[in-house]
Amino acid sequence: MSDEFYMDLALNEAWKYQILTYPNPAVGCVICDKFGKILSIKAHKKAGYLHAEPMAILFALFNLNDEILNKFLNEYNVCFTQSFKTLTELNEADLDAKFCYEFILSNHGNLLNDASAYVTLEPCSHHGKTPACAILIKQLGFKRVIISVCDENKIASGGAKILKEAGIDVKIGVLKEHTKKLMLPFKTWLNGNFIFYKLAMSANGVITGGIISNELSRTHMHKLRGVIDLLVIGGNTVRVDRPVLDARLANAKAPDVAIYSTKRDFDTDIALFSVKNRNVEILDNLEVINKPLVMIEGGEQMLKKIALGEILNVKWVLIYQSSEFKNADNIKLDVRLKPLYEGRLGDDRYGWYEVC
Amino acid sequence: MSDEFYMDLALNEAWKYQILTYPNPAVGCVICDKFGKILSIKAHKKAGYLHAEPMAILFALFNLNDEILNKFLNEYNVCFTQSFKTLTELNEADLDAKFCYEFILSNHGNLLNDASAYVTLEPCSHHGKTPACAILIKQLGFKRVIISVCDENKIASGGAKILKEAGIDVKIGVLKEHTKKLMLPFKTWLNGNFIFYKLAMSANGVITGGIISNELSRTHMHKLRGVIDLLVIGGNTVRVDRPVLDARLANAKAPDVAIYSTKRDFDTDIALFSVKNRNVEILDNLEVINKPLVMIEGGEQMLKKIALGEILNVKWVLIYQSSEFKNADNIKLDVRLKPLYEGRLGDDRYGWYEVC
């Protein structure tokens, strides 16, 4: 198959963690052995978690040799008093980066000699708490590294140069237009605000009448609430729905809230006002918002204003859509969206869309 | 990666041609070389076209050796006075099965020795116009064949036995529940009627007000019209929309039409009545329909009756959904659908759903 095929697998994996990696970019990585067999498809999942490349390298080694997996489990569980037993548990875990790097370097046994790595973003060259990803790839004897886009961040860039100087065949630019879309939130919040609008609706466009989305969708949304800097909500929604707006399904910190309203007379018994460690502000002008990552949870009126460009510079819409038709009125407005990514959360679909 | 990973690739490819293969089942096939590298991902596209296995084998050989591709193009173009130049053209073409089989047997050069094939359905054992797929796989020296479900068709079954007797490692049952869903239309029309309901709507559930779907979606729908035995449409839709209901975008034969109506007073100037080689009947009772493959193109009332089980035994709904919101009323009913497959046609999404 073509380089584009493998890069597409890496991109799809990266999209699953879009925004959740804040303030880091979403990055995906596919590793193939020297014969072209896929060994792993992984992504960076959350800031502080392993980068996509070491995650993919670790799982490639587990795939190649069960003994490496068993050794990892034994040593990791002893060292960090954990009780991980399966690949699935490791896959979800916040693994210690330093331990993983050292484990990889001590146990790879040249199994990844002449392997290939497909990465959506240039591997980092920055030696922070852990060695740079580019150095790790070099040390394992990879033969080819295929990069979609280069890192413009001055501290982290230079990975491709390190790889080339080590004699690795480096190809840059595969599916780069797609990866530029993937990277747009990161590029935007680095130098300004990335603001997205979240909508949950039925298969036939109904957004009212109680809970629309399934638990997987709501958990995903709570994870987002756990990483954003600010949640913006319309005053009417607060008065009618009396929401909590916390992130309990993800065991995460509830976000700060800005209520968009010209009136300030809210019933302070509404649950959102009583959430601990949360700031709530009431704004009649959203242009003052200067947080890097902002999610809007509004209703029809708010989406109309956004579609018309009347409030804020909202580039993306996140839609959770159930597979249920409801006998009720839909949200009504004229707006064309361009799909960037769609995935499934059980029977619900969710997707990231550009406002055209 | 696991057997499930490769079978899932085969399944996804097969779903793209769901119903379009009528009266054959939708079948997908992935071929990996002896090292586990993916060589091709193909499906059976249309009755009369190559089976999934020889299609995947042919493209695996093209992938392995450019000279085989060039030789194929030269010989095929001379033999059939064609002017195919690219893999893309070959991929879409109705290739002569006998020629392809003989070409494969004469030119494989043992390149597929010890390869693996993942097939959603047991390879056929029936020697018809061309050799059976099981024999072909045996002759090429495959080492492993992974089958999702076995063929219950007495004429075609027995492929797994042929493979096992040749010493090939045969594994059966990978993702079989998913493949059973894929095969449901085929199983149904073999012994009765498979009836599905087609709906085109905007992102927010609007089904009225002119053309909703893009040209790719409409072409897909015309391909379906080209293979079905009967198109059922509601009398009101005929009176209001005055449709042609042909299959011009797919250069296919327009389907026969049954209009569901208690009144018989249709304006015969309505375009659908003037399409050549078409039967039109007006039915006040749909239970008399006994064609194997039937598509319903109805409006809200018809879908409500189906959801309530009042008319026909409709198990599946095909939905084309644009990524555009419209400022208009939605279709309104209570029904829960279970997604079976979703794919993209440009900015539109389409999907097959089970009525729960």
Automatic annotation (TrEMBL), chains A, B:
Coiled coil: none
Keyword vocabulary terms for this entry: Multifunctional enzyme
Pathway of action: Cofactor biosynthesis; riboflavin biosynthesis; 5-amino-6-(D-ribitylamino)uracil from GTP: step 3/4; Cofactor biosynthesis; riboflavin biosynthesis; 5-amino-6-(D-ribitylamino)uracil from GTP: step 2/4
A matching Pfam family: dCMP_cyt_deam_1
UniProt keyword Membrane, yes or no: no
Enzyme Commission no: 1.1.1.193, 3.5.4.26
Residue ranges of every copy of the CMP/dCMP-type deaminase domain listed in the record: 1-170
Function: Converts 2,5-diamino-6-(ribosylamino)-4(3h)-pyrimidinone 5'-phosphate into 5-amino-6-(ribosylamino)-2,4(1h,3h)-pyrimidinedione 5'-phosphate.
Family per record: In the N-terminal section; belongs to the cytidine and deoxycytidylate deaminase family.
Name of the protein in question: Riboflavin biosynthesis protein RibD
Species assigned in the record: Campylobacter majalis
